[in-house]
Amino acid sequence: MQTHLFRLLLISCLHACALVSYGQAASASNAPKRIPEPLCIVNSTIIANGGMSGLDVTKLKSVVVYKSNDDQDTPALLRGLASTGIIAITYDGKVGSTSFARLGRQHGAKSPFRVVINGQLLDGAQQKTLRIIPEAVGQLQVIPASATTSQALVTIQLAKAKLDTTKRPPGTIMIRGVAQK
Predict the structure, then answer these.
(1) Rounded CA gap, 124 and 121, in Å?
(2) Please, which residues have CB within 8 angstroms of residue 174's CB and are 6 or more apart in sequence?
């Protein structure tokens, strides 16, 4: 029972960004509206937005949702990273990730450089401690140091969850996963 409840909670949290509310006012375009996505953190240090599909749900230990960027309960390392909230996942398995130093070097950034994620400049401790799943990188740009800036800048836009744009009749219930006895 606890496993099924945990899976339901996880799926609900991870797909909250892709939901479009029923009865929403019609817009000029038929494209679904995006709800701002929270930042997904695995094992307190790995940014995993867009790379969650590779995690085995049977190895998930806990999920904590921090609603506010400046919440007292939010770990100090994660404060200031996401104005739309943070989903912190404890995972009992290996997660393939890379450091920002390595990611910057792979894309031609010369040391020293600073890292910006979704418009938020990381402080020194965040840049040294946090890691990122390669699938979480949506776009990456390296801005070299210039006469006005002493350090290069690596800007990262995190990958967005893919929206399911399949037209289904109202009231359709989608079930994901495999039922077990």
Answers:
(1) 10
(2) 168
| Domain extent at residue 113 | 2-19+34-158
With contact defined as beta carbons under 8 Å apart, do 39 and 86 qualify?
yes
* Residue 77 near residue 44 (C-beta atoms within 8 A): yes
CB–CB of 70/79 below 8 Å?
Answer: yes
Residue 177 lies in a domain: no
140 part of a folded domain: yes
Q: How many CB atoms lie within 10 A of CB 102?
A: 12
Indicate the residue type of 156: I
Summarised one tens digit per residue, pLDDT across range 50-82 is: 777 778 888 889 998 888 766 678 888 888 887
How far is 32 from 87, CA to CA, in rounded Å? 23
Number of separate domains in the chain: 1
Q: What is the pTM of this model?
A: 0.67
Which of 89, 72, 81, 78 is CA-nearest to residue 117? 81
